[in-house]
Amino acid sequence: MISRNNRIILSCLCLILIAASACTSKDNSKTNKKDDMLDQKVDSLLALMTLEEKVGQMNLYNGFWEVTGPMPEEGNAKTKYEHLRKGWVGGMLSVRGYDNVMKMQQIAVEETRLGIPLIIGFDVIHGYKTLSPIPLAESASWDLEAIENSARIAAVEASAAGINWTFAPMVDISRDPRWGRVMEGAGEDPYLGSKIAVARVKGFQGDDLSQPNTIAATAKHFAGYGFAEAGREYNTVDISVSKLHNMVLPPFKAAAEAGARSFMNSFNDLNGDPVSGSEYLQRDILKGKWNFNGFVVSDWASINEIIYWGRAKDKREAAKIAATAGSDMDMEGYVYIKELVNLVKEGIVDERIIDEAAGRILRVKFELGLFDDPYKYCNKENEKKLIGQESHHEAVLDMAKKSVVLLKNDNKLLPLKKEGQKIALIGHLANDKNSPLGSWRIASDDNTAVSILEGMNAYKGNELIYKKGVDLFLGETAFTKEVKINTTDRTGMVAAVNAAKDADVVVMVLGEHGFQSGEARSRTQLDLPGLQQELLEAVYKVNKNIVLVLQNGRPLALEWAAEHIPSILVGWHLGTQTGNAIAQVLYGDYNPSGKLPMTFPRNVGQIPIYYNHKNTGRATNREGNVFWSHYIDQENSPLYPFGHGLSYTNFKYSDLTMSNSSYAINDEIDISVTVSNIGAYNGKEVVQLYLRDLVGSLVRPVKELKGFELVSLKKGATKTIEFKLTSKELGFYNNSGEYIIEPGDFEVFVGGSSDTTLKASFTLK
Ligand code: BGC
Q: Cα–chain-centroid distance for residue 273?
């Protein structure tokens, strides 16, 4: 067979080059040697490839079974198979499972001229089959080890299903909960977002990408997508250079430094440039300044969309712009495969651009070990054994409990007593096994979450009465469809109110269906959808002992509830083990320690609202007149700030001390604080450190998170926590995108939330 012969030639060529490199690069460090060898393998392979085959590597097709975007006119199975056989496809997405992946991989390896294996991508966003909490929820844990472990489990399951590349982590910072995709990210803060980005990349990729249970990560969406105007999906983004560098880029940079093997660009424009065609982002910053040697994949047909943005007149121009700008792979766009070969032949696109792009993709395939064994991710035994194993359920349960945030607990209704209580459990979502799985969970089976009703039923000491109240949604729900919300049918309302009347405690599970957040799920209202608010108020009239358990994929604006309901838990969409996690928190078998990774506004009119805002020139009402920065109908403060979250115990902060009062720019600044558990339970606290640069050459935020530590404290225990600030934390990016550190006065704040006032000061000389 021609292909086998050629593959033998290819292997020999690679070996010769490896041997050559070993002789010539004696002085290089181990990593450099490895890099050189890889470069040479890639080069030797490129030398064997035709232009068409190289462009083929830049072509990513969706599979035939699942769809995560609008279907393009060109996309039919016949064309895809034809292209696969010609070696014109570099990878497939949303192909999963031993049989399906084998089928595709065999075509690539056995039937094409050079037998180059495919990279197999999938949206492994918060688990594969055994689901963790949605990423925003996980972020509320501030527990980097647990978050890394959650990504690890996702990688183990996904790789056992033949996948070797995930389109995660999404590291988009966003201050706008109207945007449904905040559920996929780590919230509003670039420091926390960067730490979580690293944890997730490490979790997916492990220490060695060539192991069969690690997968290549994708930092997405590069960049600015989280700042879509008015929180409307796919909308325009117009932000300053300093905002881009200080707010948007840090988690991407962190992901690149952690070794993320690919980046995905986004659907938005950035200051007039559709980002799939942005040279500034891809060439100057990512591949230039950051020296990124992985590859950039477009988002679903986003190169094609450069035409709809009005930046290119046709596919040919879109292909030229995107390839020149450094987008290496075209996802389900049919632009590269149609246009690039001709563009090169006509001398409009330099072939070196194609070599570079194809080379980057091949490099990752080498790193994944696909050239050693193209079928290494296809193992029927593993697929059966590893997916859904018991230890994964234990881990996602642990992650789910860590993600819960206790917003308020005024009358100490929580934790619930375990015996002798009559508890009314109310809400459609309390008895739902599908919604808690959250959005973005294509490979998991519907209705496989433990419902909250099931979780609470496991506690037998109380009398538990369940009433739905009202339907939240009508009919079937699906990832690709709008959820139909019930706004008229009140059947069941009276029964729920009656059940609540003589209950000791009412647990109400209200909020959003899992498919009300995620891609293309922007909202203009952040209230409880449908008739849920009416239900809540009706129940409140007969029984005020309400614990509200929210189900949400984003911050909600619940002013009425915050004022009237004594206890509120943010229960997010916690994945497969939702019901067990919520029940264990409600009953005090787990003491909540989550902290909000994103501000909860009072109402939609306050958005964007975030803790690291600027002071303005008129921040306070100095003279009692109207001339200050405020609303006439609402407070400026949020409902719950970033970093907020209570525990069943209480923590006291004291003795905030600094080693000095003045430092040189390169000094390490030592800060310590004492934290005591003064309540009645053992607990965990996220100790947060914020910094304020009082005077800068650009206006600086009133506070910026610069450190945190998750501390476990037994009741009565006290601990001293040490922080270090270095030049990494002290500076900021100016409007030329340069990182600068400026001398001057700074304030340091430490506490259990961004609204902490415990403060110390220092000067940087
Ligand atoms: C999303 C990406 C996703 C891709 C592939 C797009 O619609 O924006 O985040 O990775 O589809 O499924």
A: 24
**What are residue 750's DSSP bridge partners?**
689
* CB distance 123 to ligand 1 below 6 Å: yes
Choose one of 61, 123, 303, 305 to mutate for the ligand 1 pocket test, by most ligand atoms within 8 angstroms of C-beta.
123
Residue 544 has pLDDT above 60, yes or no: yes
Query: Is 277 within 8 Å of 244 (Cβ atoms)?
Result: no
Q: What share of the chain is helix, strand, coil (3-state, %, to 5)?
A: 35, 20, 45
Segment 405-459, tens digit of pLDDT: 999 999 889 999 999 999 999 999 999 999 999 999 999 999 999 999 999 999 9
Q: How far is the CA of 425 from the centre of ligand 1 (A)?
A: 37
| Catalytic residue status for 299 | yes
What is the distance between the alpha carbons of residues 358 and 352, in angstroms, rounded to a whole number? 10
> What does the pLDDT average to over 54-67?
91
Copy the structure tokens of residue 668. Answer: 């390490």
**Alpha-carbon span 410 to 414, nearest angstrom:** 9
| pTM greater than 0.85 (yes/no) | yes
Cα–Cα distance, 717 to 645 (Å, whole number): 20
25-60 pLDDT tens trace: 444 466 678 888 999 999 999 999 999 999 999 999
Residue 255, helix vs strand vs coil: helix
Considering the candidates 123, 143, 269, 299, report the single residue annotated as catalytic.
Answer: 299
Residue for token digits 């012969």? 5
Please, are residues 748 and 761 in contact by the beta-carbon 8 Å criterion? yes
Closest CA to 568 of 590, 584, 592: 592
Residue with tokens 């050239």: 371
Please check whether residue 159 is in contact with residue 110, taking contact to mean a CB–CB distance below 8 angstroms: no
Q: Quote the CA–CA distance of 193 and 164 in Å, as a whole number.
A: 24
Could you tell me the distance, in angstroms and rounded to a whole number, from the CA of residue 68 to the centre of ligand 1? 6
Range 624-633 contact pairs with CB under 8 angstroms and sequence separation of 24 or more: 631/605, 631/606
**CB distance 167 to ligand 1 below 6 Å:** yes
3-state secondary structure 404-434: CEEEEECCCCCCCCCCCCEEEEECHHHHCCC
Q: Is the pLDDT of residue 211 over 90?
A: yes
Closest CA to 257 of 267, 245, 249, 246: 249
The residue to mutate among 93, 182, 300, having the most atoms of ligand 1 within 8 angstroms of its beta carbon, is 300
